[in-house]
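Ops channel
N.P.: pipeline sanity check, posting one input/output pair.
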């Protein structure tokens, strides 16, 4: 067996293990079921539910199709490589060999994506950039970062839309917000949250002296604003009682007042203002939905604040990553010690090495914590 065949077989075993771990066979069945359900005549009668259904179908179909295509490519390359062992052809051998590295890189990226299992990791990202300490240089640095992340998104075939762009007085931007739409956009970009520092010879200084400037990056998952409240009948406990106060003799003689308790949350609402129990029940249900909406909105605000993290001033001592272009070229992440001397490539969107290093460190930390808990 030649080395090329051995490489292909090694990749095949790697892919087979991953496909089993992902249970792609079950997911393929689920895709067919979802496709059949989407063909129902009344499928779009509930637009919101239909959209959620289609999003799930698209994500599952993409996952299954991607791994199946890789498995097919490896199978074809393996058959071709075995054939070339019997009938050597140098040109064809080189072609097969050149097809392996891109496939291996793709497999590596897909395997890495499996680490993005956080609640919001698969969602789109809303990335905000704010110029910090450094005056005009900081505003120029903020614009450089915006351009860098737009290029990074383009390289990953993510769609982008700028929602806010506040220009600086002389150059750059004071702040900008952009939505980056693509699977795992937030999972990747949450590694970029924090203060970013730039050290360079300032183009805005007549003496051309070295300046340090800062910009802050915030990244939020794109959580839908619309909150849909659905209340199951079995989750409601309803009591009726005789109304008191103003309302006439009818109110005082019948059990028209309604007390409604939502069992999962313990929220209680009452209504006794209407003349009939049916009307009071309708109003109580309306009040309950309003209270549940308020509760859900508060939860989302708290979750958004947690994801956003502590509000840190973009200034000295707070940086997570530094870009130095004078007196030497280096980009260094102070959390992972990941670094590169290719500042030009980095500012052109080549950020993946830093993103991967951060996420790998986070994953290692989780694994270490689990191991420690299981071995007291």
């Amino acid at each position: 067996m030649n080395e090329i065949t051995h490489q292909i077989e090694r990749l095949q075993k790697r892919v087979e293990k991953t496909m089993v771990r992902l249970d792609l066979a079950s997911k393929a069945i689920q895709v067919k079921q979802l496709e059949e359900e989407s063909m129902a005549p009344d499928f779009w009668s509930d637009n919101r539910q239909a959209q959620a259904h289609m999003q799930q179908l698209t994500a599952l179909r993409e996952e299954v199709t991607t791994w199946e295509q890789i498995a097919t490519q490896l199978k074809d390359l393996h058959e071709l490589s075995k054939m070339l062992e019997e009938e050597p052809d140098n040109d064809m051998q080189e072609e097969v060999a050149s097809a392996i590295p891109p496939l291996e890189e793709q497999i590596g990226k897909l395997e890495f994506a499996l680490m993005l299992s956080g609640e919001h990791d698969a969602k789109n990202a809303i990335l905000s950039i704010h110029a910090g300490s450094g005056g005009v240089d900081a505003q120029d640095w903020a614009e450089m970062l915006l351009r860098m992340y737009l290029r990074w998104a383009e390289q990953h075939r993510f769609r982008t839309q700028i929602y806010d762009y506040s220009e600086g007085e002389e150059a750059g931007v004071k702040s900008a917000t952009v939505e980056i739409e693509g699977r795992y956009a937030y999972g990747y970009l949450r590694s970029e949250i924090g203060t970013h520092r730039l050290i360079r010879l300032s183009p805005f200084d007549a003496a051309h002296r070295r300046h340090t400037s800062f910009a802050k990056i915030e990244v939020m998952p794109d959580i839908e604003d619309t909150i849909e409240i659905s209340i199951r009948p079995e989750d409601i406990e309803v009591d009726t009682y005789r109304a008191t106060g103003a309302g006439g003799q009818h109110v005082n003689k019948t059990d028209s007042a309604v007390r409604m308790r939502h069992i999962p949350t313990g929220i209680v609402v009452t209504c006794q203002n209407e003349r009939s129990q049916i009307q009071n029940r309708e109003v109580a249900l309306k009040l309950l939905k309003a209270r549940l909406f308020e509760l859900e909105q508060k939860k989302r605000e708290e979750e958004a604040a947690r994801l956003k993290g502590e509000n840190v001033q973009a200034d000295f001592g707070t940086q997570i990553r530094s870009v130095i272009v004078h007196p030497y070229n280096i980009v260094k992440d102070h959390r992972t010690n990941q670094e590169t001397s290719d500042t030009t490539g980095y500012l052109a969107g080549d950020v993946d090495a830093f993103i991967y290093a951060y996420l790998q460190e986070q994953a290692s930390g989780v694994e270490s914590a689990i191991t420690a808990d299981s071995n007291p």
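N.P.: looks fine end to end. The two ends are 47 Å apart (CA to CA).
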